[in-house]
């Protein structure tokens, strides 16, 4: 009897604990959802930014590199892909947390904004490391003729990546609306509105810092103390305070190396301009006793000989080449020639007639 009562009490206790856990979990989830819901001010901003063509005859679609609702950290790279269903001129605008408007396409790396129908294009940008938490937006427009990019915008784009075109998004939207809305609906299309959240930076332990690395051109491999980290632009978290070596590597460019000192709980900005590699090609000077003999390098036709002066074969890397001379009525001449960097190798050829 006593044991039965004890089991009943234990059952009630476990049931109460289970119900309490369910309620706690529900409240937690509700609190998170509420915290993530946009404020009335944010909803109003979102609605004011989006300009819609009510009867478009073609489309422009934008997509982020993360799923809907994803967040980014200050200093993180973000990739925007876009596709127009018709050959058109595309312009993409970024509306940041401070109310500023920037052009992200066209840009310094893609200065011409004409795109082909059905082809996917992309642009990568780096979120400012000093951006405060909040929501940013991206909207684009496609037009059948260049409308939004004039001489003023071209000048800004040539000087800066993602130039600011307005510090007041409301004034900018009003200007765009006056330009676009009166146009015939068959010559322009507005994109879907992208939004992404910039999350607060989690304070690092006092013995860690951050490194934000950018390069021109983008896409260089970044090595931190000879350990591969990724490609630029790149945000490196939890870097131990102290001295470190940064190396950027990109085909066709000289390696960029620098030593930096990372300060605890601070972001160190690395901005590198990569220098193209200097070509130290070699040359072959072909002297021949006849005019018009065809010169082949590794089986590829390059030029014809001149009896009065040498024929110079340029832009040859340091290695061995098979040189062949062919002329009707003459014996074919073949020989392997070694080319040295920054040097001219002279060959003297006497073509002999067939007997």
Can you describe this structure in just a few lines?
The chain is an alpha+beta fold and 355 residues long. It is built from four helices and 25 strands. The N terminus is likely disordered.
Summarize the SSE layout with pairings:
Elements: H1 2-36, H2 40-49, E1 60-64, E2 71-72, E3 77-84, E4 88-95, E5 101-105, E6 114-115, E7 120-126, E8 134-143, H3 151-159, E9 164-166, H4 169-180, E10 188-190, E11 194-198, E12 208-216, E13 221-224, E14 227-231, E15 234-240, E16 242-249, E17 256-262, E18 267-273, E19 282-288, E20 294-297, E21 300-304, E22 311-316, E23 319-326, E24 333-339, E25 344-349
Parallel strand pairs: 2-11, 12-18, 19-25
Antiparallel strand pairs: 1-3, 3-7, 4-5, 4-6, 4-8, 5-9, 8-10, 8-11, 12-15, 13-14, 13-16, 16-17, 19-22, 20-21, 20-23, 23-24
What features would you describe in this structure?
The protein has 355 residues and is an alpha+beta fold. The protein has three domains: 42-198, Sandwich (Immunoglobulin-like); 208-273, Immunoglobulins (Immunoglobulin-like); 282-349, Immunoglobulins (Immunoglobulin-like, Sandwich). It is built from four helices and 25 strands. It has helices at 2-36, 40-49, 151-159, 169-180; strands at 60-64, 71-72, 77-84, 88-95, 101-105, 114-115, 120-126, 134-143, 164-166, 188-190, 194-198, 208-216, 221-224, 227-231, 234-240, 242-249, 256-262, 267-273, 282-288, 294-297, 300-304, 311-316, 319-326, 333-339, 344-349. Strands 2, 4, 5, 6, 8, 9, 10 and 11 form an eight-stranded mixed beta sheet that branches. Strands 14-13-16-17 form a four-stranded antiparallel beta sheet, with no helix packed on it. A hairpin with a 2-residue loop joins β13 and β14. The longest helix is centred in the N-terminal third of the chain and has 35 residues, at 2-36. Residues 1-9 and 16-36 have low confidence and may be disordered.
């Amino acid at each position: 009897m006593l044991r039965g009562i004890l089991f009943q009490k234990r059952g009630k206790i476990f049931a109460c604990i289970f119900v309490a856990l369910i309620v706690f979990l529900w409240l937690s989830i509700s609190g998170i959802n509420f915290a993530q819901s946009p404020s009335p001010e944010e909803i109003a901003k979102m609605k004011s930014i989006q300009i819609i063509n009510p009867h478009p005859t073609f489309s422009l679609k934008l997509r982020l590199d993360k799923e809907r609702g994803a967040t980014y950290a200050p200093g993180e790279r973000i990739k925007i892909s876009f596709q127009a269903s018709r050959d058109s001129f595309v312009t993409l605008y970024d509306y940041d947390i401070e109310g500023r408007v920037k052009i992200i396409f066209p840009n310094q790396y893609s200065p011409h904004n004409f795109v082909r129908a059905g082809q996917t294009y992309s642009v990568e940008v780096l979120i400012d490391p000093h951006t405060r938490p909040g929501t940013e937006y991206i909207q684009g427009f496609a037009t059948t003729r260049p409308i939004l990019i004039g001489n003023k915008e071209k000048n800004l784009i040539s000087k800066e990546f993602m130039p600011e075109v307005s510090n007041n998004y409301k004034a900018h939207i009003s200007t765009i609306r006056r330009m676009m809305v009166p146009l015939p609906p068959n010559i322009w299309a507005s994109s879907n509105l992208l939004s992404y959240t910039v999350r607060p930076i989690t304070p690092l332990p006092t013995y860690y810092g951050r490194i934000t690395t950018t390069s021109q051109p983008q896409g260089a491999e970044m090595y931190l103390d000879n350990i591969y980290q990724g490609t630029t632009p790149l945000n490196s978290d939890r870097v131990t305070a102290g001295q470190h070596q940064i190396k950027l590597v990109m085909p066709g460019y000289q390696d960029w190396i620098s030593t930096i000192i990372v300060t605890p709980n601070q972001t160190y900005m690395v901005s590198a301009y990569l220098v193209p590699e200097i070509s130290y090609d070699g040359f072959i000077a072909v002297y021949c006793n006849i005019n018009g003999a065809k010169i082949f390098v590794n089986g590829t036709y390059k030029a014809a000989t001149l009896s009065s002066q040498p024929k110079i074969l340029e832009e040859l890397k340091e290695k061995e080449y098979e040189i062949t001379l062919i002329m009707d009525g003459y014996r074919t001449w073949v020989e392997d020639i070694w080319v040295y960097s920054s040097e001219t190798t002279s060959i003297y050829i006497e073509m002999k007639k067939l007997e």
